[in-house]
Design a protein that fits this description.
The protein is of the alpha/beta class. Helices cover 41% and strands 16% of the residues. The chain is built from 13 helices and 15 strands. The structure holds 4'-deoxy-4'-aminopyridoxal-5'-phosphate.
């Protein structure tokens, strides 16, 4: 009843840009820890959402935000201690060169600003991204997001390069070569490369964990471009390190943060060298009304303290290994060709089969629906939505991880039965 009412009202009042998940959308009643409870009381394990990194409805976050809302919640045109203290604490978790922060409200805004700063610093507007990159929704960021707008709609000044195969031993060398070639193509089009933007977990390219990007970053710098690490997905412990770039053995010129930064409060940031921001700031101001408020900084401080305690990275490492081992065992016993990869607690189950991409896509979306029936929330990603993506909160218990694996086993069995009955 309530579902139909909400669907109809939504249809009438919300712009037609939104998509809900699932054939029958979830109606949220409440959420706590790793669980979302629907209005009828059914409990779902949230393995989709990497925003509530320390769990849904965290009392600590609620109290920290509430305290600031009842004290003062203004903007960065005044001096306000919680915001400055948080900025100080945040930059201390980055390598030395990444010493200053500019706040924004979403991952898209952070990437938009990083592009502007890089174009200003490099004096060039060309941008290289990966073939299935997603970096957000503002106009300039949509232009560098082929997975959003399609390869035909990316900007004239944008080159989308192939990511080498996830199991390619020469990954870094091949990626570096692709960067060099992309740079030449941009130069020929009159847009020399000023920035290369890379999601450190290559999430929308199918969740890939290169062993190193040292040669790739050398190639970026040889082009005279800045390396922007998009840590919106991979930041704050998700990969088992504080930042995804650490696992790639490189230091970016600029880093963008978002999603889990304030556990659901709208907060994002660009981290970079002081002189680069200062030079940009001399010619262009950047003020973002809702960015860097005390309430958001208070929430972000709770997340950052959890990160600094080592709890998030430890859980990403041990939980990621546990769930990966269980899923690999289930897949190993199945007739369906699949492979599980993981970056800490960001897992991708790849239904391979690039030659028959529709089969892989259909299998991945079948699993997403069946896991929903098993009360586990996940989604798809990858070149042709062929990868099931799992990103639970980094406070998830072993028992909850085991439930995800159990649900996955049931979903995969149902897929086998369905395919056998269709004679595939
Ligand atoms: N970068 C990456 C890698 C993302 O995954 C996203 C969001 N899915 C964004 C940027 C954009 O973030 P937001 O939705 O907060 O604008």
């Amino acid at each position: 009843m309530i579902k139909e009412f909400l669907e109809q009202t939504r249809e009438r009042v919300l712009g037609g840009t939104y998509r809900t998940f699932y054939s029958s959308p979830l109606v949220v009643g409440s959420a706590s820890g790793c669980t979302i409870t629907d209005v009828e009381g059914a409990e779902y394990l949230d393995a989709y959402n990497n925003v509530p990194v320390i769990g849904h409805s965290s009392p600590e976050i609620a109290e920290a935000v509430n305290r600031q809302l009842l004290r003062a919640n203004t903007h960065t045109r005044y001096l306000d201690r919680p915001v400055i203290d948080y900025a100080d604490q945040l930059v201390s978790v980055f390598p030395d060169r990444l010493e200053s922060v500019v706040f924004a409200c979403s991952g898209s805004e952070a990437n938009d600003l990083a592009l502007r700063v890089a174009a200003h610093a490099a004096g060039r507007d060309g941008v290289i991204v990966t073939r299935h990159a997603y970096h957000g929704t503002t106009r300039s960021v949509a232009e560098i997001s082929p997975s959003l707008v399609g390869l035909d709609e990316i900007g004239e000044h944008v080159e989308a390069i192939d990511v080498p195969g996830w199991d390619e031993p020469e990954f870094d060398a091949q990626f570096a070569a692709a960067i060099r070639q992309g740079g030449i193509r941009l130069e020929r089009r009159g847009h020399p490369c000023g920035a290369v933007v890379l999601d450190s977990a290559l999430t929308s390219d199918g969740i890939v964990q290169p062993r190193s990007l040292v040669a790739t970053v050398e190639a970026i710098h040889k082009l005279g471009a800045m390396y922007i690490a998009d840590e919106v997905q991979s930041g704050f412990g998700r990969t088992g390190s504080a930042w995804g770039f650490e696992r790639l053995h490189v230091v970016p010129d600029l880093v963008t943060l978002g999603k889990p930064m304030a556990n659901g409060m709208p907060m994002s940031a660009v981290i970079g060298p002081r002189d680069v921001f200062a030079a940009f700031g001399e010619s262009q101001r950047y003020f973002n009304t809702f960015a860097g408020t005390a309430a958001s900084a208070a929430a972000a401080g709770v997340v950052l303290s959890a990160l600094e305690s080592g709890a998030l990275t430890e859980r990403a490492r041990s939980g990621g290994a546990r769930l990966t081992a269980q899923l690999a065992e289930i897949i190993g016993e199945s007739e369906v060709p699949a492979r599980v990869r993981h970056n800490g607690l960001m897992l991708g189950v790849d239904f391979l089969d690039r030659s028959e991409s529709n089969t892989a896509r259909r299998r991945a979306s079948f699993i997403v629906e069946e896991l929903y029936r098993e009360r586990v929330l996940v989604s798809t990603t990858g070149p042709c939505a062929n990868v099931v993506k799992l990103r639970p909160p980094l406070t998830i218990s072993d028992e909850e991880l085991d439930s995800i694996a159990r649900g996955f086993g049931v979903a995969l069995q149902r897929l086998e039965i369905a395919e056998r009955s269709h004679g595939e």
